[in-house]
Inverse folding.
């Protein structure tokens, strides 16, 4: 079978993917296996592995467009230019997906109680080369989109606060678990007690008593979801690199997990400038 995907095949799999994403964001159940079986007839009976990989390509395009991705379809780059055109074209016709995504990112959040902190920490994603860094055949030009839902979620104060409170609980647990109860009692939510401009949210400690500065970034979506950092946070991660930790919480509304990026943020992530301050002096 040819590895080249026709326009008709791409249109079919994108439509199916966006339908599943709409269902997931709306909190409705669906079967990926059933969707895949129904889809195969429109895809010249392509093998499941090929279909799964294309779904992961679609996830990567959606992230670039500011959309969340379907749980389980880890974003994979190196996709064909036609895929970008088809995804953006279909997104413009899906008002229900816009409504579901907007509701999902603006929904209030509550700090969960009784979390199993022993199974909360996981490995951080590995930094990947951007398409532009491997000499692509085409250059990404972000098309016009209605709104960046990931940026909207980052502005959800309820979700951000719930994530910070979760990390407070986690740090108490972490220090108590190693017998440092006195240090656990000194963990402080500095974003609340001292203000939001310090470059970090939670003051905690290492086993030897050294201070640990924790910036918390929370998402209800998957592990590979991009996050936003301020110039102040980036600068602080550089000047306090030996003590700075960025805790990334993900799948917060399901079962919160976190990974830890220790030291300067730029050592772990690709940084894209997304806004500029315009002034006249």
């Amino acid at each position: 079978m040819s590895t080249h995907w026709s326009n008709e095949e791409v249109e079919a799999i994108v439509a199916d993917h966006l339908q599943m994403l709409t269902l997931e964001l709306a909190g409705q159940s669906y079967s990926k296996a059933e969707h895949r079986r129904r889809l195969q007839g429109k895809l010249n009976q392509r093998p499941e592995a090929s279909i799964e990989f294309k779904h992961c390509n679609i996830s990567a395009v959606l992230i670039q467009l500011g959309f969340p991705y379907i749980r389980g379809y880890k974003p994979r780059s190196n996709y064909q230019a036609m895929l970008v055109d088809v995804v953006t074209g279909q997104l413009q016709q899906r008002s229900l997906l816009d409504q579901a995504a907007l509701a999902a990112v603006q929904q209030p959040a509550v700090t969960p109680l009784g979390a199993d902190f022993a199974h909360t920490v996981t490995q951080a994603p590995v930094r990947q080369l951007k398409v532009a860094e491997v000499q692509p055949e085409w250059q990404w030009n972000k098309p016009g989109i209605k709104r960046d839902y990931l940026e909207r979620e980052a502005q959800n104060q309820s979700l951000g606060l719930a994530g910070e409170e979760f990390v407070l609980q986690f740090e108490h647990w972490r220090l108590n678990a190693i017998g440092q109860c006195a240090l656990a009692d000194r963990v402080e939510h500095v974003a609340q007690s001292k203000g939001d401009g310090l470059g970090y949210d939670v003051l905690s400690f290492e086993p030897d008593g050294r201070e640990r500065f924790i910036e918390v970034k929370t998402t209800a979506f998957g592990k590979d979801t991009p996050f936003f950092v301020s110039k102040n946070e980036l600068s602080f991660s550089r000047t306090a690199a030996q003590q700075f930790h960025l805790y990334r919480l993900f799948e917060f509304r399901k079962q919160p997990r976190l990974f830890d990026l220790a030291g300067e943020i730029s050592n772990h992530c690709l940084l894209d400038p997304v806004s500029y301050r315009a002034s006249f002096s």
Notes: The chain has a mean pLDDT of 91. The chain has ten helices and four strands.
